[in-house]
Design goal:
Helices cover 81% and strands 0% of the residues. It is mostly helical and 216 residues long. The longest helix is centred in the last third of the chain and has 62 residues. The chain is globular and about 55 Å long. The termini are far apart.
Length: 216
Amino acid sequence: MDHQTGSLLIHAATVFMGFFAIMNPIANTSIFIGLTTGDDVATKKTVARNALLMTFVIIAIVAVLGKLIFELFGITLPAFRITGGILIFLIGVQMLQGSQSSVHKPSDSDLQKSRDAEIAVAVSPLAIPILAGPGTIAAAMNFASGSGTAPIVVTIVAFAVLCLITYFFFLSGDRMIKYLGVNAVNAITRLMGLILATIGTQMVIAGVTGLFPKGA
């Protein structure tokens, strides 16, 4: 193994572990369970697949285009943090009250709208901003910012592997529901609501801090 290959493997391992720490599939599996409580297995699989596919596409695009995307639309990372944080906080508050968020739990009066709304959970809040959040996007920009195409390829491949691992984590979460019961599921829903609300608050704080850094 030459020095260049060894450096590339070390970089790939660093990228993977960095993404794993930021996206945290273990914690997000618990959030996924809370968000999809009451859905059938087919819907859960569809939501998981679509969420991770959307997440991968977003990160792949970011890795290739980088900061050009935000510059093109005039979007700043702090603004993204604040907007995403508010969305997550509102969903978390509804779950904390013991009810499913209206964002991902549609009215029973319209079946088609209901299915469309359930699938939409894959896009928001799962793909954006929970999985492909500001931290993940910033990490992708950083990992792919080296010279040449190798850092970009490594970033995309490493994240693809992480998405596959996360998908199996999400699917295994269904088995947990069978052994928990209604009371435990309700408790998990409220706990996940608290976690989501806290995550949303932290994202808003990070966004505001980014807009008004110390010494500015």
